[in-house]
Amino acid sequence: MVRTQIYLTERQRDELAAIAKLVGKKQSELIREAVDRLIDQAGRGRREAVLQEAAGIWKDRKDLPDFEAARAEWDRS
Fold first, then answer.
1. Cβ neighbours of residue 58 closer than 8 Å, sequence gap 6 or more
2. How far, in Å, CA of 55 to CA of 50, rounded?
3. Nearest of 43, 44, 46, 13 to residue 31 by alpha carbon
4. pTM to 2 decimal places
5. For residue 21, what pLDDT is reported?
6. Res 20: pLDDT
7. Domain span including residue 37
8. How many C-beta atoms lie closer than 10 Å to residue 32's C-beta?
9. Could you tell me if residue 42 is inside a domain?
10. CA–CA dist 77, 69 (Å, integer)
11. Which of 40, 31, 42, 38 is nearest to 2 (CA)?
12. Is 37 within a domain?
């Protein structure tokens, strides 16, 4: 782990201390969990954005095989 210092408002510090006491965890552990959740949420957003950008990128290409015909042929097998 890497040691990092952060600044919290008094309210944030007080609420974090109360939550830590309530759930029986250290404040640093709660902060790491919150950072992990933020990273996961941001990652989902980035993945969704990439998929949206990629949607339909091959729709106008004429050099690709007829996938519907190939799929129909596979279904007959």
1. 64
2. 9
3. 13
4. 0.58
5. 98
6. 98
7. 31-56
8. 14
9. yes
10. 13
11. 31
12. yes
The verdict on residue 66 lying in a domain is no
- For 17-69, what is each residue's pLDDT tens digit? 999 999 999 999 999 999 999 998 887 778 778 888 888 887 888 888 888 88
What pLDDT is stored for residue 4 in this prediction? 93
Q: What are phi and psi of 47, to 5 degrees?
A: -65, -45
Is position 21 within any domain? no
The total of structural domains in the chain comes to 1
> Can you read off the two tokens belonging to residue 1?
């782990």
Q: How far apart are the C-alpha atoms of 32 and 3, rounded to whole Å?
A: 11
Residue with structure tokens 């609420």?
Answer: 15
User: Is the distance from CB of 31 to CB of 16 less than 8 angstroms?
Assistant: yes
pLDDT bin (cut points 50, 70, 90) of residue 77 is low
Cα–Cα distance between 23 and 73 in angstroms, integer? 59
